Structure formats: C-alpha cells, structure tokens
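Field reference: sequence -> structure
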Amino acid sequence: MSDVSVSNINRITGPVVISKFKSQHLEDYIDIFREFESKKRKPIPSTGFVTIRLSTSLSELCKEFRETDLRELLSKSRYESKVKVLQDKLRLDSDIFNEFFEPTVREINSHVENILKESSVDGCAAILMVGGFSESSVLQKNVKSTFKQLKVIIPNEANLAVLKGAVIFGHKPTTITERICKFTYGEGSSHRYSARCNHPKGRVKKDENGDLRCYNIFDILVKAGQSVKVDEEQPEQIFTPIIDNQTNISTTVYASTSTNPQLTTEDGCKLIGTLTVPISDTSSGRNHEFGASFIFGGTEIVIKVVDKESGEMMLKSVDFLG
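Structure field:
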C-alpha cells in the first residue's frame, strides 16, 4: 500500500491492525492500495466527497485487536466529521483526501527546487511530469503554481511514459545520447600503506606478499551530476596483479550518493556489481599491466580491458548478480 494510504489509515486503526490486515488479508490490502492509486490520478473536486471501497475484514480486525469497530475508531479521531464509514465504503471530504498528499507534494517541490539550483540545469525552461503520480490533479496544480516561471508538460498516459521510453530506447539506443549520473560510481580498490595516505582511516592489513595495504578505497570513476555520453570511455586506468601467480583480476563497482566518497564503507555507498578479468599468462607476475576504461551512458556499465603485453582487447560487463 502507498505511504499515503498506510500512514493515514494507521492513524485511525493503529499499526498492529494494519500489520495483521496485510499478513492475513493481503488481497484486501492490495485492493485498498489500488483504490487510492486510482483516486489520486483522477480530478479531485474542491468540495464534496471521495469514496474508497473498503473491505469489511479491516473493521473485523479492529474489533479483534482494538475491541471496537472502524466506525467507532473514526468517531474518536480527528477525522470524525470529515470521514464516514458506510457499509463497505469510506467517504472522505475532498479536503481531507487532498491533505493526505501534502507531505509528498512538499517533498517533491523541495526536491525540484534543489535540482533547479544546480549549475547543470541552468537555462531549464520546462518541467516534464511522468509516472503515475503525475496524473494527480493535486500534484499538477501544486507544481504549476510553485514553478510559474517554467512550462509544465504532462504527456497523455504519464504513468506509461517511462515504460514507453524504455521500449523506444531498446529499439533505437541512439535516441538518448547523453545522461546525467544520479550517483557517484567507483571501484573498490587497495594500495600499499604509506604514512602519507590522505584518505580516512580504513581497513589496513598484510597481503599475500607480506606488504601492508589499505583496503576499501573508493576510486571514483564518475561523479553524481556529471554528464556522460553513450559509449564514451573514461580515462584509462592501469591494473596489475597483487601476487605473482594471480590468474584473474577482480574489481568491485560501487555507487554512492556522495559526490566525493573516499571509502566504500561510508554511509550511502552500495556495492552494485563485480568485474572479473582473466589472466591467461602469469609469467610476468605482478608486472603484468592491464589498461581499463569504464564506459557509462548505456543500459549497462561496461569496461574495456587492454592487455598491455599481448595487445588483446576485451569488453566486460558488470555482473550485477555477483
């Protein structure tokens, strides 16, 4: 069930009833979710009522765990004069229904305001609203009144716009030529310990060669807010094995909400996948160099690896299930 419907019904029934309702009557629980989803996408009158179909099982759970029915609980809540139970229906004053969405609308407005302050969106002339909630007259009206200086575009079937875009992109990848990174992407790396290490204190231990190494280093590849073009290669990095008889080089790829993460163990940092490059010839040991260039902007993260000894080139994709 959406946060809007859960949080407000919670206020009336209490969290125990909602929890039991979800576990014991999942189908009815989903039906209420669908009701709210359907109603929020339709024009909501400034006066009058909004009717939500309600399963009788919810009222029965109220009797079981609160020793009174839903109608009685409503009469003791702040919604007493604004919300009524009529058999299997919940009738809400339209102003109360609109009130349910106010916290979410405020958060959306605040988020858009923060985005518009970024230098990367200088000259922005329009807001394109997509997704199911974009069909809500409450949100549409609020966005238009808050951002009067911008044109607000709401396509037909806004709830399907993202899906349609994905299908179009699948048929014609060149439709999108550039993306703005939502997260900072990087790889988990390590290096020999030095008293001059300037990163925050992290994990330090001896490797197979007996050398002290710093681990969990976040090696940034692209930063959040950075523009990347489809198939554009990032600057090449050089990898070498850590031990002489190493048969592959593996690296972990992380995403972070921070623009300048330093350790992979920081808050907001998440492992998203792994990359493994085989080493067919181990005769050069730790001196065997590989050049690696990450490629962002497409539907997946790809790395171009060049064996500096043989000249062999390979493309590897991030294993998001690894």
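Note: Residues 102-173 form one domain.
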